[in-house]
């Protein structure tokens, strides 16, 4: 894995955390100026995990996220508009999620996102302070 850094670059492979994806599609004012600029650059690869699809479906089913469209339609439309590539959760990612260098918290979705980021040499775009402070993953604060 390349050295960890919080530096911004115009040629980066980003994994959007679930909230970052929702904000980018539905509430871009929650994102910082640098993040908004990075997300519209042609060179930026914008990726989301199947874990985030699961989280969005759960939040929608529980009434915590309300869309004007059916959840599946919102996911498809937001993915198309943001030019997102969807990543599966592979067995390697599942194993890595519980082999992360300590200390890391127990949330399974966060563990899978961090494992995906590490294994695929990505940068995780998040506002999650626990992830931003975790030194064993490359992450950028999406509020900047």
Q: What fraction strand?
A: 5-15%
For the record, what is the CATH homologous superfamily label? 5'-nuclease
Order of helices and strands: EHHEHHEHHEHE
The average pLDDT is 92
Largest sheet: 5 strands, parallel
What CATH calls the topology is Rossmann fold
Which structural category do the helix and sheet elements fall into? alpha/beta
End-to-end Cα distance? 24 Å
- Give the overall shape: globular
**Care to count the β-strands?**
5
Low-confidence stretches: 1-6
Per CATH, the class reads Alpha Beta
- Rg over CA atoms: 14 Å
Count of structural domains: 1
Fold and architecture overview:
This protein is of the alpha/beta class. The protein has a single domain, classed as Rossmann fold (3-Layer(aba) Sandwich), CATH 3.40.50.1010. The chain contains 7 helices and 5 strands. It has helices at 18-26, 33-40, 50-61, 71-82, 91-97, 108-119, 129-132; strands at residues 13-16, 45-49, 84-87, 123-126, 139-141. The protein has a 5-stranded parallel sheet. α5 (91-97) crosses α6 (108-119). The chain is globular and about 40 Å long. The model is unreliable at 1-6 (pLDDT under 50).
Provide a quick synopsis of the model.
This protein is about 45% helix and about 15% strand. The chain is built from seven helices and five strands; from the N terminus they run βααβααβααβαβ.
């Amino acid at each position: 894995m390349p050295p960890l850094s919080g530096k911004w670059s115009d040629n980066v492979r980003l994994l959007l955390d679930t909230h970052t994806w929702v904000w980018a599609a539905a509430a871009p004012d929650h994102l910082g100026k640098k993040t908004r600029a990075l997300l519209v650059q042609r060179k930026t690869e914008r990726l989301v995990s199947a874990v985030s699809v699961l989280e969005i479906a759960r939040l929608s089913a529980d009434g915590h996220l309300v869309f004007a469209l059916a959840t599946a339609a919102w996911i498809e439309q937001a993915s198309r508009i943001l030019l997102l590539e969807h990543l599966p959760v592979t067995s390697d990612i599942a194993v890595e999620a519980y082999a992360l260098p300590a200390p890391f918290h127990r949330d399974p979705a966060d563990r899978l996102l961090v494992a995906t980021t590490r294994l695929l040499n990505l940068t995780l775009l998040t506002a999650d302070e626990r992830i931003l402070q975790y030194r064993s993953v490359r992450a950028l604060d999406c509020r900047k």
